[in-house]
Amino acid sequence: MTQAYVVRFVGGPLDGRVDSHAKAPDEPKPTVTHVHLHGGPKIVHHYDLRYAVEYGCEYHLRTEGDDAP
């Protein structure tokens, strides 16, 4: 049995979300953009890829002082 490839989100509105995939992608996206539209202005969050030995990879919320990868 193969182990699922797990992607975790850390910080922001997706904090704690865990996505499971049958296999690791050939090239994971370096940045994931989440657009929040619920009942107000559009809010955009960027999550940058970091590898995690235990999980596969994690996307961490980019903070204001961080540079884009």
Name the features:
69 residues, mainly beta, five-stranded mixed beta sheet, 0% helix, 46% strand, globular
Report the sheet with the most strands, covering strand number, pairing sense and barrel closure: 5 strands, mixed
Number of helices: 0
Distance between the termini: 35 Å
Mean pLDDT level: 85
Strand order of the largest sheet: 2-1-5-4-3
Order of helices and strands: EEEEE
**Which structural class do the helices and strands define?**
mainly beta
Percent helix, as a range, is under 10%
Rg measurement, Å: 13 Å
- In terms of DSSP E residues, the strand content is over 45%
- Number of domain modules: 1
Low-confidence stretches: none
Number of strands: 5
Overall outline:
globular
Describe this structure in words.
This protein has 69 residues and is mostly beta strands. It has one domain (5-61). It is 0% helix and 46% strand. It has no helices and five strands. The chain has strands at residues 5-10, 18-21, 31-36, 43-52, 56-61. A five-stranded mixed sheet has the order 2-1-5-4-3, with no helix packed on it. Strand 1 (5-10) and strand 2 (18-21) form a beta hairpin. The radius of gyration is 13 Å and the shape is globular.
